[in-house]
Amino acid sequence: MTWGKRLCDLRSAGFLSPSEMQRAVVTVGTSRVSVIYPRLLGEYLDALVVKSEDDAVVVADSRSWVTLADDVTPGRFCVMASNGRGASALDVGDALAAFWEHVTYLLIDQLTDAIALHAAAVRYGDNLVLLPGPSGAGKTQLALWYRARGFALATDELVSIAAMHDGAGRLCVGMLARPFFLKSTFRSAELLPASGSKIRQVSAGGKMLLIDEMSPRPAQPLVNGFIVFPRYQAGASLQMSALTPARAGLQLLGQCVNVRNLPGGGLALAAAAARRLPAISLRYGDTEQLDGALDVLTRQILAAVPSTDDLAALCGGFNARAAASRTLDVNDAPSAQGPTVPSRHQPASKRRLTVGMATYDEYDGVYFTVQSIRLHHPELAGAIEFIVVDNNPGGPCSEALKSLGDWIDGYRYIAVGERQGTAVRDAVFEHASCDIVLCMDPHVLIVPGALSRLIDYFQATPDSRDLVQGPLLYDDLRSISTHFEPQWRAGMYGTWASDPRGSDPNSPPFDIPMQGLGLFACRREAWLGFNRSFRGFGGEEGYIHEKFRRRGGRTLCLPFLRWLHRFARPLGPPYVNRWEDRIRNYFIGLTELGFETTEMEAHFAEVLGADVVKPILANIRATMPTHVPAPAGNAIRSDVIRPSEEVYSPHNFSFGDQWATINFYLNMSVMKRQRIRLASVLNGVSLHRLHKEILDVLDSPGEIELTLAEPTVGVDGYNVWNAPYFPTKNRWDASRRHKYVCMQFDGQSFGQVKNPTLEEERLIRRFLQDRCHGLAPMILGKHLSVQECVDIATDSALFVGVDSGMSHLCHSVGVPIFLLEYSLPTVTAHNGKTHILCKGYDDFASRFDRYVNYLHAAGLPDALDIGKPGQELAAAPTPSVLPAGAIGQAQNKSFCRSLAARDIPTATDVCCGQHAIRQVLSLFTPRAVVGHSKARIGGECDGGYVMIDDLQDVQVCYSFGIGFDVSWDVDMAQRGATVFQYDHTVAAPRQPHAAFCFRQIGIAPADGDNMRTLQSLLNENKHSSDKEMILKIDVEGAEWDVFDHAPSHVLGHFKQIVCEFHGLAELRDRRWCERATRVLVKLANTHAPVHVHGNNFGSFNIVDGVPVPDVLEVTYVRRSSYSLEPSAESFPTVLDRPNNPSASDVYLGRFAF
With helix as H, strand as E and coil as C, how does 354-403 read? Predict the structure, then answer.
């Protein structure tokens, strides 16, 4: 019997009475399906459809329709559709499920102008988070998790994306509002709404969830959004990976359910959506893993769309944090000696070693290598993380390689197809979650016991920045080679050789010049990376070894670390090994390291013939910048030679973590994941701190917004933008919280400023209009002339310049400057300046550091030219012209002697890694107070704090830092407390109160004229025996020194402490990090954090991949006064308020590190 006849029979029997049936429409995009259902089922359907005013049952006029009606069997229902499909004798749950199944099918079938995606979606204001994936991928669970974090559900089944044809290339999105169907395997009951939903049994396999906020919406323009491709795998670790638009587009096509309806299979629409929306792939094993990671990442992306590289950096930071176990537990009561802070090199998770390999269509090699490790190193079961980097994703081995993760514990599959060659091994270190990383070829076997000894070795040398390898074991299992001799043979640099010291596995490590890279290991943070311009195969051996030695590391052979390598390839390699790539890699590597290429060129001419090699070398040279002189030392990084981001990491330079501005030729685009943190040459002096307060940096045109998110390096040179910065003296004194930057663009040198692309223009306009963006709340100028810049800078105490012509003008009007010139085509010595020529970049940096220290000590700010490299420099150069200020010749000679004598801090001394940063932040992880609630004390904006509501017996409060808002002080006074107020920067509190005792003195580490220590104040006020006091401190950064010098027993007088911690963006500075750790550990001895709130007047930074607010408000309670337990609270809470009411509050999540 056809369903059309069935419908007629039901109508004749009175089951489809118009008075009992509701007619409505369901739409997605331009697709429309008419539906009819009993009014008695309206509670399940009315909110999800658009009801028709005409209740008459009209089916024949509708091209697509679905009818849900009472069946002839009482209490049963039937479902019929216009395509001739249907079902009968269904209970209400099964009937509703069948109804929506047929509606969805017909909607998809009619969509011919939009790509229909099998996806869930949530909304956050006008923003859309798209969750495409097959059934079982965890879309519904993830959507409900987002809802529990403040997002609104939109659909869990169908999303359409269509072009708007408005000439602007915009897209519009439609979503199917329908119930959420929960499978029987759904285990996250805590995500189900406590109210606003109805759950009804659908079948033995699942439940139907109706949520009040779900309602039909017309298609709307796609303004902003984010794509997450989820993959739920029970027990898996959290893994987020940024996707390029190309890869995201292909994955969208994989979830397209109407490909046959679309021209080109929907590729154009999928590509358009992927280009517009950033995308990641997500693997998770429990929704708890997502807290504080995916929610924070999502809000960051929706607030400011990152590039793919920056998104990868964000994902990497969250992955590392998720993989790390708690390395410092301050939540339990500390011992008498206080908590012990483990070394920053301590492994961060239960897994102790990352074993990674890059492969190109070599499944067998990966399989047998990984399984051999599992079989022959059983003592490390559960302690190894395997990372496999697939350099041909989409190739014949990709699916098999990926599926190994379903069977092998700790296995992670990483697809890297954007560039090909052995240099993609960088991805192993980028994605590793363990501190110790072993990188190997996928056809290598390791002798039993060697991996355990390798772990022991690194644990015994926690500060190692060495590259370690082991003897190659030949097929006879007896012969070995320990290293490469640095000589050319058969088109390769390096020949195998053996050192007798490697014959005994128990011999100590010994230095080697270089070795093949079939197996090597180092600490993750010590990895320096291959040049990103390398392609294909060859050129890495010797290159990476030299880099490690130049950065203070050693290249060692560990005799016990023996490995067997399969060399023979009877079927040939699966990749193409091109001589052009190999020669190019050697050329780039040698050039980067400052070596001559003559010997290399002669060798390849001998091997291949001069006629073959000559055009190859000519082509390589044609791609090199003609304006950059030959590099010296490890200096030049040109806009064609694009080394790894790690080359620019702080560890690779001989100074600290922030730079003023410098003429330095490099391609800014390679710095997005690892922001250049060339150190302040003013390291260790107060001028250094001053620069950190006033300088911001501008990146290349297309990345303005991203770069202004944190300080990097000011760059002047060809093909990049010129960015002098003008610190204004009165701004230093008024507020060090604000940073003012004046941007001067030289249109003659930088053509892209004159003719920006549409995208660049949009970014520039958006940045200039947004005072809250990044670190610069005000832009003083855009296309300013040199003279305009000089006019602005005239009142400056310090002008940091990078342009020779500007230096003439500034010098003529008396503006003190530092002019740095390095690797310029020509260098001119200007009158009135000290002119020093340097051999190479290290020499340049070192001497400038010393020079600025000297200038600061002498009080003689002046100009300095440091010339192009390659010129000879006397051991103790005497400037040809005395600096302005006319210091005497004797003083000048003394200065020159001090240049050679002064010790300069190294990068290892001043830079801090991600692991140490997470350790510091873990000390802020909030605890819950058993049996007590919280209350907001103070005003609604800046000045109010959330505290434990246990203040009824408090008689004394200390308030340091009064400012304009004293609402906290007033609240405490009204509760009956006497408030002792201290602030040396104001004459009196703006709002007086009888319970206020104000003194115009400040708090400091030591007593002075108008400064007192905390202990001195307690003694003066006779409070040294009071144990029920409250301390509030907001002293704009001085809190660190105050706590650092305050004895623990003094802090123990305070039942609660409310403090605003400033300057957390400085966590990358080792000395700052060490002091912060010392302070927070001291606080942890007596107090525990119970509430955190990010002050949105401060910036929000990504510090070495870790999201960090610059200013954090923290409430502490005394451990001995309260019972504490782990907290599941998410911040900000309902009690928190944004300090700046015109901007959104800072989302911290659980703030657990």
Answer: EEEEEECCCHHHHHHHHHHHHHHCHHHCCCEEEEEEECCCCCCCHHHHHH
> What is the band of 200 on the pLDDT scale with cuts at 50, 70, 90?
low
Output the DSSP codes for 217-278.
---EE--EEEEEEEEE-TTPPPEEEEE-HHHHHHHHHHTBS-GGGSGGGGHHHHHHHHHHS-
* Nearest CA among 971, 963, 925 for reference residue 945: 971
Mapping DSSP onto H, E and C, the string for 66-118 reads: EEEEECCCCCCEEEEECCCCEEEEECHHHHHHHHHHHHHHHHHHHCCCEEEEE
The H-or-E segment that residue 209 falls in is strand 206-211
Selection from 424, 392, 421, 390 nearest residue 582 by Cα: 421
DSSP state letter for 883: P
Higher pLDDT pick, 890 / 528: 528
Q: Strand ranges (DSSP E) for 900-1013?
A: 927-929, 934-937, 945-948, 956-960, 978-982, 996-999, 1002-1003, 1011-1012
Residue 477, token pair as written in the block: 């299992």
* pLDDT score of 202: 54
As a whole number of angstroms, the distance between CA 1037 and CA 1002 comes to 13
| Total count of residues recorded for the chain | 1153
Q: Please give the model's pTM, rounded to 2 decimal places.
A: 0.36
Task: Please give the helix or strand (H or E) that residue 587 lies within, else none.
Answer: helix 579-593
How many other β-carbons are positioned within 10 Å of the β-carbon of residue 222?
Answer: 21
74, two tokens: 């009482």
Cα dist. 499→375, 502, 503, 541 in Å? 30, 6, 8, 18
203-235 pLDDT, tens digit per residue, is 544 577 777 777 888 888 988 999 999 988 777
Domains of the chain, first to last: 1-110 (no CATH), 115-303 (3.40.50), 353-577 (3.90.550.10), 585-622 (no CATH), 645-909 (no CATH), 914-1126 (3.40.50)
Residues 257-261: contacts with CB under 8 Å, at least 24 apart: 257/108, 257/116, 257/117, 257/118, 257/158, 258/108, 258/109, 258/111, 258/112, 258/115, 258/116, 261/109, 261/111, 261/112
Q: How much is the CA Rg of the chain, to the nearest whole Å?
A: 33
